[in-house]
Amino acid sequence: MRHLAVILAVLTLAASAAAVAAEAGAQITVALLPKKKGVAYFTSCAAGAEQAAKELGNVTLIYDGPTDGSPEKAAALIEKWTLKGVDVIAVSPNDPEVLAPAMQAAMAKGVKVITWDADGAASSRSFFVNQATGTQIGEAMVDAMAKDLGTPAGKVAIVTATLTAANQNAWIAAMKAHLASAYPKMELVAIKPCNEDQKVAFQVAQDLMKAYPDLVGIFGISSVAFPGAAEAVKQAGRSGQVLVTGLATPNAMKGYVKDGTVKSVVLWNTRDLGYLTVRVARALADGVLIPGATSFAAGSLGSKPVAGDAILLNNLLVFTKANIDQFDF
């Protein structure tokens, strides 16, 4: 009986391995949902996702999202893809609470759901494809501002995308902690949202400079908040007096870096983030990415660490006048 049990166990494992192998060759559809379609940051992520889909050869990629950043419209897209029967939905949630019911309903229907770029409730997805930890990103921005100022002292403010963006709230928490411990003479005086709109970010930055005439720095912590704030400083004739740093694609910031409005731009390779997301989606669909994994084989990106249920891209980049022309995204 013992021998029979062993034989049955071996056959079961072999059958499972064969099923995974067969599934790995099957065509799947992955739907990639950005916070806001039409933003250069997410467009470059989509380019990396397309690259991964092409390399794999068995992934049909759908890239779509609300052009106004509406979480309600994003939820409607998730519901549409669920009814269509896509295999994996990858979500960058603008408002996790609004999107969670649609994401959970998709999972209940057998659709694999992951988050990328920004996270949602753990109950609404299997894994999170994270560019880096919130602590790493928040501290990198604060360190960049401190270095750019030379003397890390004075009033600074943050322009964020929305007050409901989970990833940006995590970065802000890390920024506050790092300011308090490493740069106590830098005083955070305001945190303002721009609703992921560059024109609003421009106006918010103008208002901040009026409210705090002695402001020395503005953090723009989204890919539209940063250029919007930089343009406000430039038009106010305060380049070099109010330094701006944060997160954005190098192409969006080259002009501001070259004219001195911005000294440092912090980001990650956005194409790599999109690429990693599709690789994770494929592995999840195949059943080869399971809870408890500590590393993930990400194609041309090599091995990436897995921390709990988060796959980390890592490799934060800092773009300056010396290197920004080397990057094109």
Could you characterize the architecture of this molecule?
With 329 residues, the chain is an alpha/beta fold. The protein folds into two domains: 2-132 and 270-314, Rossmann fold (3-Layer(aba) Sandwich), CATH 3.40.50; 134-267, 3-Layer(aba) Sandwich (Rossmann fold), CATH 3.40.50.2300. It is 46% helix and 20% strand. It contains ten helices and 14 strands. The chain has helices spanning 2-25, 40-56, 71-84, 96-108, 134-149, 166-182, 198-211, 225-235, 250-258, 270-286, and strands spanning 28-33, 59-63, 88-91, 112-116, 128-130, 154-160, 186-193, 215-220, 243-246, 265-267, 295-297, 303-307, 310-312, 317-319. Strands 2-1-3-4-5-13-12-11 form an eight-stranded mixed β-sheet, sandwiched between helices. Helix 2 (40-56) packs across helix 10. It is elongated and about 60 Å long. The termini are far apart. Mean pLDDT is 92; it is low at 1-23.
Summarize the model shown.
With 329 residues, this protein is α/β, with parallel strands linked by helices. Helices cover 46% and strands 20% of the residues.
Order of strands, main sheet, comes to 2-1-3-4-5-13-12-11
Radius of gyration: 22 Å
From the N-terminal CA to the C-terminal CA, the straight-line distance is 62 Å
Strand content: 15-25%
Q: Write the CATH homologous superfamily of the largest domain.
A: Response regulator
The count of strands amounts to 14
CATH class of the largest domain: Alpha Beta
